[in-house]
Amino acid sequence: MDETLIGYLLDALDRDGRRAVEAHLRLHPESRARLSVLRRMLDPLADDGDDPEPPPGLADRTLAHIADRRPYLRLPGAPPPSRRQVGEAPRRGPRRIDLLVAVLALALTAGLCMSWLARQWHDYRVLACQNNLRQFWAALQVYADGRPDAAFPRVEAAPPRNFAGVFVPVLADAGALGADVTVSCPARGRQAPAPCPLADLEDMARRRPDDFQVLTREAGGDYAYTLGYRDGDDVAGLRRDSGDLLPILADRPAAGGGNGPNHDGAGQNVLYIGGQARWCAGPNVGVDRDDIYLNLKNRVYAGVHQFDSVLGPSDASPCPVP
Amino acid sequence: MARFQAGETQAFDALVRRYERELYGYLRRYVGDGALAEDVFQNTFLQLYLKSGHYETGRRVRPWLYTIATHQAVDALRRNGRHQAVSLEAARETADDGEADGLSASLEGRNPEPFDAVSGREQAERVRAAVGRLPDFLRQVLILAYYQGLKYREVAETLDIPVGTVKSRLHAALVKLQESMAATTAVYEA
After folding, report:
1. ipTM of this complex prediction, to 2 decimal places
2. Among residues 55-114 of chain A, which lie with CB inside 8 Å of chain B?
């Protein structure tokens, strides 16, 4: 009963409960006495009855507190109070959609930059390769200058000088090859082997045929040199006056023909007798658009005539080896 | 709250200002520290803001607000190492053992004179101290029912406990309060 009487004194009962207590008190004087006792028990609490004053500006600080955190809050289903409403400055942090757009923009920019960089890198490697070919052209001119017929190194029909890569030791033996010329295409960045002296080459062909085979594959490096053209039973080489538009040196072709691996199959650089080094997207850049890697019989042998240009990889021979 | 949920942003502002004095008073009494009460007050409305989407039209805001405030206050006291981990069993023992005899004895044998002997201000401080010494779960009920003027039903809704438990806790709180104040009076007189 005390609990109910306490509730009555505190006005903590609902209307029906209060009426019931009042009815009970009217009929029970002992309960009225008890009520007085309980009231005296509660009286001391009234000594601390003044509500503590909230510190000035508490509501404003609370609204600002919420506004500060609003960018990081998820409010389900209800709009937040405006910053103007809570007296705050405009938003300081980015919204999620802003971040998303920024990330997408950065990704797009990075993609474009990567594409642009890849294109620049490709162009740089093409130019470096062309410069190397021009160094070869200068070496070929030096070699031709020392020949009465102004001939360039010739790939012979019979061993041991019957492979395309022989032009490198021939140029080196003639002292025409500069120190900065390399048979490794700059686009591939490989370490090029030093040219083999001609005397060693001929000795190797006789005594160490296996080493000679390796040499024939590596002497020309990443380039393909002219196999000349058939002249009766012999093979003729190109000369300075053969024609400026005849190809003489180029990036080597792929194993099955076509664009070679030096520039990832995108094309090849081709050096012409006249000194031009051109980037060509396909192999049909010879006279009358013939394939520079095949003769008119679609074979990797010497051309069937002077203008049938055939550039063979290092181990290619101008005619079948007996 | 329904107005705020419907997009009337000024309604939340009005809500904070409407309950500023009442809720701060409750928290100030409950946590016993002005700065901590302010922190809890701010976090209470932050939580109310976050939960506003869950508000059901027609639900009374006041008990809901007190519920959030009480939870925040308990968390704050726990973080500050001031939470009194008194079990319900201990409270029940207090109520069961001391309720009838203790309350009756203390009431019937109560001598009001000691309280009259001190000034009003000192008396207020002693009452506040005695309330502060109550276990949390008793202090909650006492403050809500006496100082905040909530009905038993509202206290029950706020604390998510049955009305009967509210009554028994309030009763137990008064018994302990009486004992505590009697003890301090004895010390004072000595």
Report:
1. 0.71
2. 55, 58-59, 61-63, 65-66, 69, 73-82, 85-86
Would the pTM of this model clear 0.80, i.e. be above it? no
Structure tokens at A48: 């601390």
The helix (run of H) or strand (run of E) holding residue A279 is: strand A277-280
Nearest to A153 by CA among A205, A231, A246, A227: A227
Q: Is residue A199 part of a domain?
A: yes
CA angle, residues A96, A102, A105, in degrees to nearest 5: 145
Please tell me the total count of domains within chain A. Answer: 1
The reply to whether A179 touches chain B by the CB within 8 Å rule is no
Gap from B29 CA to chain A (nearest CA, Å): 8
Instruction: Indicate yes or no: CB of A41 within 8 angstroms of CB of B106.
Output: yes
Cα–Cα nearest to B78, from B155, B136, B29: B136
Q: Please name the member of A13, A43, A79 whose beta carbon is closest to the beta carbon of B7.
A: A79
Interchain pair A78, B52: CB under 8 A: yes
Both tokens assigned to A124: 């740089």
Lowest mean pLDDT among A96-110, B19-33, B78-92: B78-92
Residue A138: which residues within 8 A CB-CB, separation 6 or more? A178
> CA-to-CA distance for A38 and A41, rounded, in angstroms?
5
Would you say the C-alpha torsion B55, B77, B179, B91 has a positive or negative sign? positive
Structural domains in chain B, CATH included, are 2-79 (1.10.1740.10), 88-189 (1.10.10.10)
Distance CA A113, CA A107 (A): 10
